[in-house]
Design goal:
Elements: H1 3-11, E1 18-22, H2 40-49, E2 57-61, H3 81-91, E3 101-103, E4 110-112, H4 116-123, H5 125-143
Parallel strand pairs: 1-2
Antiparallel strand pairs: 3-4
Helix pairs in contact: 1-2, 2-5
């Protein structure tokens, strides 16, 4: 995800009726150049503030993002971070893990950000503003505005 996409969505918020992301990842500024960084929180807050009055569908696919921890040679004595994330996701179907990844500049590989994924999950900001965004979408469905 890049700042240009965020700008596009905000600019077209008044006309968009459906937005769907498939296999998209956020990126934080502390893991790469800030000009290429967009968090899910920043996307959701900017788009919500733009008041997308015609938006009736807003989805992020896949809904169940796989979560992996970096390999470790010695098994941890406590539940792993992956387990700590997995349990709340299973207990609450509305809870989401919004994925973060880093694009390797040298080899072009997409690497899951194993530090940002649990950190943003437990912080909860992405989830809170996602719920606010979904309230807007559901309100639009009920108004019949076209």
């Amino acid at each position: 995800m890049c700042p240009q996409l965020l700008d596009f969505l905000v600019w077209h918020a008044g006309t968009l009726e459906s937005v769907s992301f498939s296999d998209w990842y956020g990126r934080t500024s502390d893991r790469g150049p800030t000009e290429h960084s967009t968090t899910w929180y920043a996307l959701f807050i900017a788009f919500s503030d733009a008041e997308p009055r015609k938006l009736r569908q807003f989805e992020i696919l896949p809904v169940n993002v796989p979560y992996h921890m970096p390999p470790c040679q010695i098994p941890p004595p406590q539940p792993s971070r992956a387990e700590e994330v997995r349990l709340p996701l299973e207990e609450n179907p509305k809870r989401r893990l919004f994925p973060y990844a880093v694009l390797d500049d040298k080899y072009g590989m997409l690497l899951e950000d194993e530090y940002e994924n649990p950190a943003s999950f437990f912080k909860g900001d992405d989830q809170k503003i996602w719920e606010r965004s979904m309230e807007i979408v559901e309100g639009n469905r009920g108004t019949g505005v076209s």
